Amino acid sequence: MCEDGDDGRSARARRSAAAPSAGAVPVRVPTRLAGDHKATRDYVLDLRELHAIHAALTAAATVFLIDRTYFAAENFHVKLSFHRENFDALALSLVQAVSDVTAPE
Fold it and tell me: Which of 7, 14, 25, 73 could disulfide-link to 52, CB 3.0 to 4.6 Å?
């Protein structure tokens, strides 16, 4: 018989099973952000969604590595229509915005 929620697994295993995998992008984020973007819209994103967006922005460059060593900037720009610096700046701005909102006063 298990007591106090003890199911025989370690606390780490229970947390691991409850947490989303690092590569799991919430499905609703891309559909919520899709659209023509001709009008200004407000988005309310939870921490998990912000984390997924940040992870996608910072990991995008790894798709364009040549021989696991050299970054192919031209291929990145051609496929994504942005420079890597834009992705890095957006990821940094996202972190700064969350930090500003969550910082103690």
Answer: 25
Query: What range defines the domain where residue 57 resides?
Result: 11-34+42-102
Name the token pair of 80. Answer: 């994504």
Residues 19-71: pLDDT tens digits?
444 455 556 777 777 777 788 878 888 888 899 899 999 999 999 999 888 99
CA dihedral 54, 33, 48, 8 (to 10 degrees): -120
CB atoms within 10 A of CB 52: 21
Contacts within 8 Å (CB) and 24+ apart, 34-38: none
User: What pTM was computed for the model?
Assistant: 0.64
Give domain status of residue 1, yes or no.
Answer: no
